[in-house]
Amino acid sequence: MKKSKRRNRRKKEQALARVLTVLLVTGLCLTGVLIWQREKRTAATQTAMEDADGRPPLDVELLTVNPYSRPGTAIGPIRGIVIHYTANPGSSARQNRDYFEGLKDSGETHASSHFIIGLDGEIVQCIPCNEISYASNDRNDDTISIECCIPDETGQFRPETYQSLVTLTSWLCRRYGLSADQVIRHYDVTGKLCPKYYVEHPEAWEQFKSELETS
């Protein structure tokens, strides 16, 4: 009789343990679902805020901190945006980003940019906006730099590249309280033929700046 009672008690304890295990697993699953839903809502809210603010989609691929392309030096108050072109027809934003990254090993020169816009309008961010880039010579310490990929030797941007440039530059102007007159060419800093098409076609440059004022 006592053995029978012990067996019944063990069975009840085992059944209770199984019920508790099921409840625990169910609780963990529900917690995971709630966390996932919360993170999804947070991401959706962040995306909506970015869209409302006009920021275009960015592929953030920051360079490794190094002396040749990302020194990690804090930038001063932002007083301008400098537009560049890659002078490397047919190359992609990622290829130019990887070139900047490779300078940490080759040490062949000092070069980089905060943003690179590709042939299809994709935007890669290489350096945080609170650090300097090696792009604009004497204006490195107070400007954000944007490199644009080109399809051929004319230096003219593809429509996709151009539209992303307008959107990105407009967003940066709003972010830092800049006017269209504070958006300049690399040429305006050093006299270098950069961006080539906008130096050779100043009317196209003025058209670009006028679009910034209405974006």
TrEMBL record:
N-acetylmuramoyl-L-alanine amidase domain residues: 66-203
Keyword set includes Cell wall biogenesis/degradation: yes
Catalysed reactions, semicolon-separated: Hydrolyzes the link between N-acetylmuramoyl residues and L-amino acid residues in certain cell-wall glycopeptides
Main EC class the enzyme belongs to: hydrolase
This protein's UniProt keywords: Cell wall biogenesis/degradation, Hydrolase
Any Pfam family hit: Amidase_2
Stated name of the protein: N-acetylmuramoyl-L-alanine amidase
